Amino acid sequence: MPYRLLKFGFSKHYPEQRMFRSPTVLKGEYDTVVIGGGGHGLAAAYYLARDHGVTDVAVLEKGYIGSGGTGRNTAIVRSNYLTPEGAKFYDASLQLFRDLSRDLNLNLFYSERGHFTLAHSPASLRTQRWRAETNKHLGIESEIVGPEFIKETVPEIDLNCGGQAPIHGALFHPPGAIARHDAVAWGYARGADGLGVEIHQQTPVTGIEVEDGRVVGVHTDKGFIKTRRVLSAVAGWTTHITKMVGLRTPLVIHPLQAAVTEPLKPWLNHIVVSAGLHLYVSQSSRGELVTGASLDPYELISTRSTLDFAESLSGHLLDLFPCLADVKLLRQWGGLSDMTPDFSPIMGTTDVQGFYIDAGWGTWGFKATPISGKTMAFTVAEERDHELIRPFRLSRFREFRLVGEKGAASVGH
Question: What is d(CA 159, CA 165) in angstroms, rounded to the nearest whole number?
Fold first, then answer.
């Protein structure tokens, strides 16, 4: 037995430094309060401290670090989006992801696999070709491939999909990758903590004080905090926070479910997505097949999983990969998706001075974690929207300047 393991087993106190501190007392005032201890909130706190010298920051998380969408997503990273605004934004995130393990000094198990978006009809293939041309124009590696290439690359796939939805081709995105989602949260938390940011878990926000159109403080179950800058990064709970400042958004909340199988020897080296069959699948570094479907078709704040999801997902997965007939589902879970009408996020400044929003991520928030943190940190520090996120401002809905990403994000994984 390794000495390191014995040291942990027989020590009365944890023998190594924790990933980050757990302060028990809130100060009466902070320069900035970040609501939400997921990837986006922690990344913003990290870049605020590292890039802008703003270290008097409190991150408030009502549960534990990564307990929301960050710990419930399926960890796919890609940038093959349909609009120039979306593609440039997500490609900037992908570039940051590539060096993030070194930046945070933590192995995030980032692994480039190549991402297939299958087309099951000529109309779907035309949409994928549109995406490919948009990507190429922006210098993003994407191309249309035929069934022969798909079969050669993923031999186990059934191109006829059980005769239900034959594959006509696919959009292939070589940089598509997966990463360890909880490690991303831990890495940003440790990095922010090391720069002086305070992370308060089990600290729900109960209200936000606004005077003369400006934020002046935050109420928590541990007391009141004076602050003039608040960033909300709470994903599916965003509507609860925006009500506190009297802000109206077009967000609707849908449940989203996912599952993993029992571990298998490595065989699926790529990420396979099918909007037509409403599923996606990849294989983790532990051998599990990580798979999920589209949003549940009802507006509900719930993270319960359902038998209907497991049955329909399994059927479609067998259409693609009949070889999985005897493989067992290990577990399934649910998360929350805050959806916008145009399938693009809401980011930046708002009509309430000092209140900033990072929301509307639907099913594609994890892949935006680094660039969201970096651009929101700039926005909070400079009190103006970063150039990359101006198209995603909340006011676009009243200005009729939507960023229509549905063609690239309907099963946005």
Answer: 9
The reported pTM is: 0.94
Residues 259, 309 within the same domain: yes
As a three-state string, the secondary structure of 206-255 is EEEEEECCEEEEEEECCEEEECCCEEECCHHHHHHHHHHCCCCCCCEEEE
- Alpha carbon distance 252, 17 (integer Å): 41
pLDDT band at 54 (very low <50, low <70, confident <90, very high): very high
Residue 4 lies in a domain: no
Beta-carbon count within 10 A of 401 CB: 12
User: Where is the domain boundary, 287, 313, 338?
Assistant: 338
Shared domain check, 405 and 258: no
Mean pLDDT of the chain: 94
DSSP designation for 64: S
* Alpha-carbon dihedral 231, 237, 242, 244, rounded to 10 degrees: -100
- Is there a single domain that holds both residue 147 and residue 264? yes
Q: Is 155 helix (H, G, I), strand (E, B) or coil?
A: coil
Q: Which residues contact 153 (CB under 8 A, 6 or more apart)?
A: 114, 116, 270
